[in-house]
Amino acid sequence: MENNVKRDLSIFVQELFGNAQIHGNCNKVYTCGQYYYANHKIDFTIVNLGITIKENVLRFFKELRMSVPCHCIEWAVEPEHSTKRTNSGGIGLSLMRDFIYYNEGKFQIISGNEFWELNKKMVVIRKFKNKFLGTIINIEIDQNDTNFYKYHETVTDENLF
């Protein structure tokens, strides 16, 4: 991977960590990861035990008196979709989704009773009978990625891909 891609990918991941704490309204965020040398893949997981994505989205739409989307995680991974009340937002999940799409990696989000996955450019959405009290984000990145990414000099709120 080019150094520019690695640098900005690091920024996207750091935003996911910040969002896990801010949107989850929790004090701790748990993480683990591993680099698989043989197949040049990086896997890592970010977990919080706070407010779920669905709870945040429901509260946000209720305040706006709008109808709630059927799949809250799917809504949350779209560009500029955020439950933040201040400043601009909604780029962390969507930029990671776009990157993983072109990288042909894997991006999974489990929050409450919802599951959303992007794997090799295919999206799967499911609902669970039981609820996870928090949010889990699993990411797998292919470091053998040979895609060319159109690049700006610095990261902006615009879509980079």
Q: Can you tell me about this structure?
A:
This protein starts with a helix and ends in a 19-residue tail after the last strand. The relative contact order is 0.19. The longest helix is centred in the N-terminal third of the chain and has 22 residues, at 3-24. It has 4 helices and 4 strands; from the N terminus they run H-E-E-H-H-H-E-E. Helix 1 (3-24) crosses helix 4. It is of the alpha+beta class and 161 residues long. A 4-stranded antiparallel β-sheet has the order 1-2-4-3.
Tell me briefly what this model is:
With 161 residues, the protein is of the alpha+beta class. The protein contains 4 helices and 4 strands; from the N terminus they run H-E-E-H-H-H-E-E. Helix content is 32%, strand content 31%.
Topology, pairings included?
Elements: H1 3-24, E1 30-36, E2 41-48, H2 53-64, H3 72-76, H4 92-103, E3 106-119, E4 122-142
Antiparallel strand pairs: 1-2, 2-4, 3-4
Helix pairs in contact: 1-4
Query: What would you report as the Rg, rounded to the nearest angstrom?
Result: 16 Å
**Could you report the average pLDDT, rounded to the nearest whole number?**
85
Widest β-sheet, arrangement of strands:
1-2-4-3
Give the overall form: globular
Sheet with most strands: 4 strands, antiparallel
Which spans have pLDDT < 50 for at least 5 consecutive residues?
A: 153-161
Structural class by secondary-structure content:
alpha+beta
Please count the helical segments.
4
Tally of extended strands? 4
- Tell me the fraction of residues in β-strands, as a range: 25-35%
Separation of termini? 15 Å
State the share of residues found in helices, binned by percent. Answer: 25-40%
SSE sequence, one letter per element: HEEHHHEE
